[in-house]
Amino acid sequence: MPSRRHFLQTAAAFGASLALPAGAAPAARKEHRIELIPSAFQVPLDPASPARTGVWSFNRAFPGPLLRFRRGDTAHIAVSNQLPRDTTVHWHGLRVPNGMDGVPGVTQVAIAPGGRFDYRFELRDSGTYWYHPHQASFEQVPRGLYGALIVEEDKPPQVDQDVVWVLSDIKLDEQMQQVEDFGRILDVANEGRRGSHLLVNGQLAGPERRIEVRSGERLRLRLINAASARIFQLSVAGHAAHIVAWDGQGVTPQPQPAQGLVLGPGMRVDLIIDCMGKPGQNFELRDAGRPKVTSAVLGSLAYSAGPALRSRPLTTSIAVPPNALPEPKLGQATDHYIIFQGGMRGAPVIGTIDGKASRIQEIMAREGLAWTMNYNAQHEHALMHEPLLHLRKGEHVILHMMNETDFVHPMHLHGHFFRVLAVNGVANPQREWRDTVMMAPRQSVDVAFVADSPGEWMYHCHILDHAAGGMMGTILVE
Ligand code: C2O
Ligand code: CU
């Protein structure tokens, strides 16, 4: 076993080694003790119908419980596995110590059925995050194992309501049961496995998924894409919705784009909406993504008939304060390159697996892998494979990602946020921070970050079938 993976030997010493560095937070506020119990159970996806659907989720709630913290708090989260399979929990977007990152075979031993793992970390950054297993994610996430995790800002923008919508989809048969066709090579090598129905907070999407508002109120709406492959294209009818954060990190507020707001798997967006409709009115939140599903209406803003809260919108700032993320210095940054190839369509590709070059079609048939990164095809969490990149701790990095496939890939890096510098060589004026960024087909995307957190960090496509099919590697920081 490579020496960099010493979690097996040091598992017992975790308690001691996790002492938080003094002065890391502005005075630790609160210690939260939480238990998460993943298990299989039945839920009504449509509260108006007697039908029940089998899901896997946490604490018999679907989605899992909404975890809310304040920046500087500490979370102790005990995960007791009541699933019939091994699992882990990964805290998507949170900058946690590597040993708390929830990646089986890389940062911890998977939690066996009946077993337990104690996660402990400080909430260093405010924002909208989520949690999900990193074990067989292409199956466990679409079965329902996901939940929202919110870290409140010290000084949040003033709003009247703060609403979290976990968006997803689910593939159902006529009996409203999940179709259990996870991991088919047809999905792995194409756009990934999409559901037949959209879900909003674990319920079937539709106009009945209402956010009740009063005329004049200011609403913060946090949207999380927990679907394993679906790319949402969202719009709020009749309102000037402003984007105030991507992946939990504040941006200069900007109006929602006319063509809809594109939210790929793993990504989050925070909107602030001044609700200036009239009492009794209704406005739809829609999805224009593909493929089409039974309902493109996700839900609605439903104005109560009562008196208006105010006749003019609030004038206070809607900007979300930034987190203290390490700023990459481009002048001293080193350049690194990752090239992506493969998939069912596109140019013929040669990939190397276990040191032997083969055509991608052969790799698909023999190994069930469909994608290469820097010409390598590899199974996820494979213990012996080499990291894609070796970085020095503290190194300033520009990562040039080149998508030579005919498919979209939302690429996610663990343990760090990066600034999106350029798309196809054209500078991105916003340079926003993200932990997940979409590469369109044949597109190149340049990002920059400081590799300040030691450990072996996952770097993968968040279309979870792609991740299982070869688009999952690691970046080693030491
Ligand atoms: Cu949201 Cu590596 O995951
Ligand atoms: Cu992908």
Give a quick set of tags describing it.
seven-stranded mixed beta sheet; 3 domains; Immunoglobulin-like; 478 residues; mainly beta; 35 strands
Poorly predicted segments: 8-25
The CATH topology of the largest domain, please?
Immunoglobulin-like
Can you list the strand order of the major beta sheet? Answer: 12-11-10-14-19-16-17
Level-1 CATH class name of the largest domain: Mainly Beta
> Mean pLDDT, nearest integer?
93
Number of helices: 6
Question: What kind of sheet is the major sheet?
Answer: 7 strands, mixed
Fourth-level CATH superfamily of the largest domain: Cupredoxins -  blue copper proteins
Distance between the termini: 17 Å
Strand coverage percent? 35-45%
Describe this entry's structure for a reader.
This protein has 478 residues and is mainly β. The chain has a 7-stranded mixed beta sheet with strand order 12-11-10-14-19-16-17, with no helix packed on it. Strands 22, 25, 27, 29, 30, 31 and 33 form a 7-stranded mixed beta sheet that branches. Strand 16 (241-246) and strand 17 (249-255) form a beta hairpin. The two termini are 17 Å apart. The chain binds CU-O-CU linkage and copper (II) ion. Copper (II) ion binds at residues 409, 461, 463, 466, 471.
